[in-house]
Amino acid sequence: MLFISPTCNGPGKEKVEMSTEVIFFIASLTAPEEIGATPQSMLWLLPLAAAVAVVYKATKLPKITAGSFLKETAALFGSIVLFVAVTALVLNAVAWLISG
Amino acid sequence: MTARTRENQILLLTFVALLSWFVPGAGYFWLKEKRRAIIVFATIAITFWLGIYIGSVGVIDPVAAKSWYAAQIINSPMVALLGRVAAGGNYPVYGKPHEIGQIYTSVSGLLNLLCIVNAVYLAHVQWAWQRKG
User: Fold this and answer.
1) Domain map of chain A by residue range?
2) Rounded CA separation B112/B100 (Å)
3) What ipTM does the predicted assembly reach?
4) What is the pLDDT along chain B (133 residues), one digit of tens a residue?
5) What DSSP string describes B86-129?
6) Half-sphere exposure of residue B39: CA atoms within 13 angstroms, side-chain side
7) Which of A11, A50, A67, B26 is least enclosed by beta carbons within 10 angstroms?
């Protein structure tokens, strides 16, 4: 088990204290968040789609300026979300047709 | 093209690829594409750490989830250190947090792969321009 001491006071070293915020932050990385299998959990798609849009446009644009970058990224983000929504609707309709 | 210049080009491209792998965006930074470097670094780091925050360090599993781990390690070789911490199975994670955490950390790795390939291509183009001019 990883153990992170809040204070480190080794021989010949000056005392280093970790702030409570840092300890809480590191601790939060060792236990998962509580996310249920609910329709709302699908919203976790949005930050991921934003990351994909940002990185893709950062590699594609020949010159990056704030205005054009934001516009292009927003357009790609919107088209990803729209495509996912349409696919979900089609799959839902197919499932509804099959299951009666 | 002489054998020596060809060798130099391969060395340069390998260096850029390794730099981009060690620190996402560092390859762009070295190629003087600072805005691109900052955007790539910030986005990949945020996506990766958000995945770790959601699913805990347990989502990096080099033993039971090898294919996910292969995508995760493209983020940076430092992921191997997290893999060693989590390898003992001390951070169990199941269900949605596991799924979402794995997807976030793996997708950020694949995005870094895209950036590595793009940085290598950019280095090749810059090198060709310098040779011409």
Assistant:
1) 1-31, 39-99
2) 18
3) 0.91
4) 577 788 888 999 999 999 999 999 999 999 999 999 999 999 999 999 999 999 888 899 888 888 999 999 999 999 999 888 887 777 877 888 889 999 999 999 999 999 999 999 999 999 888 888 7
5) HTTS-S---HHHHHHHHHHHHHHHHHHHHHHHHHHHHHHHHHHH
6) 26
7) A11
